[in-house]
Amino acid sequence: MKLEIKRCPENPIVTPGEYPWRMSNSFNPAVIYENNKFYMYERAAGGLRPFHNYLGMLESDDGIHFIHSSDQPVLTPEMIGSKYGSVQDPRIVKIGDKYYITFAYRPYAWNSNPTGLGVPESSQADYPGFDGDESKNQTRSGIAISDDLRNWKFLSWVNSMDIDDRNVILFPEKIGGKYAVLRRPSGFVTSNAEHETHPAIQISYSEDLFHWSESKVVIRPELEWENNRIGGSTPPIKTEQGWLVLYHGVETQDASVRRVCYRMSAMMLDLNDPTKVIARCPTFIMEPEAYYEKVGLYIPNVIFPTASPVVNGVVHIYYGCCDTSIGLATVSLRDLTHYVMQYEN
Predict the structure, then answer these.
(1) Which domains are seen in the chain, by residue range?
(2) What is the DSSP letter of 338?
(3) What is the chain's alpha carbon radius of gyration, rounded to the nearest angstrom?
(4) For residues 157 and 80, is the Cβ–Cβ distance under 8 A?
(5) Per-residue pLDDT tens digits for 63-76
(6) CA 294 to chain centre
(7) In angstroms, rounded to a whole number, what is the distance separating the alpha carbons of residues 68 and 60?
(8) What is the tens place of the pLDDT at every residue in 204-249?
(9) How far, in Å, CA of 252 to CA of 227, rounded?
């Protein structure tokens, strides 16, 4: 079976500019479909040195043409705790009558120097009262909450400061009476926990969104196109077969220039026990092909999905393009589910 994922002919559908806080980058958005409208929360930056990131809010009736709801960000580093920081890679779900955004957060933003060849060269920027100690500036993942999609406030942390943890994504409903998150810890600073040489997708549970269980590995990188790391991409989609999960894999293609390639694949997890993998695609289902996916301001050869709302049986995949702009691709939920289930264990 061949899977047809269609790129929007108007890609990239969101690009940087217009406001000072989003002049250089707009990418990796959270998107939810509510009340016949698409609501997008972009990760945006006004410059690279330092690379402060904010979440801006946009709206659309058709999922393609977005306009800003506000000329100011709706979630900023200062709202989380540090005006010098960076709020990154949001994902959004609705549980009950509340909306939740999970995000990655660094208290002191880096300086970034793109090379055009691979992962940018980064260095710690100087800030008043900060000694530059790397162990005090790990990527921490948190949760913000809203009643109305417009007004957000910080709720809780998912991991402690001694663990560098990204790609934290809430399941859209409780499992066994508990909240659940996919996560991707990539290193430990002060703890004695096992260090994942090639970071893997893991899962944790909580009864209150404040206290989280020790994480358990769901899948590890196993294939050549995942040889650097993998991570969850978009909030899990509940289907009759299980939790449909899109994830990304990173391949190191030339270590001498830090050249990598980000691609997307999919798996199906058990509805009642998401540590059980029902099916997993043996290769990627989407990779950089278009010019805007291969060439950009920040890092080449990147598609980074962070949202996949399902509307009328169609999965709308919103993804960052080269950490520079935002693209949209669509696929039938039925076709995607059948494709993944070909590889049932």
Answers:
(1) 6-341 (2.115.10.20)
(2) H
(3) 19
(4) no
(5) 999 999 999 999 99
(6) 19
(7) 9
(8) 999 999 999 999 999 999 999 999 999 999 999 999 999 999 999 9
(9) 7
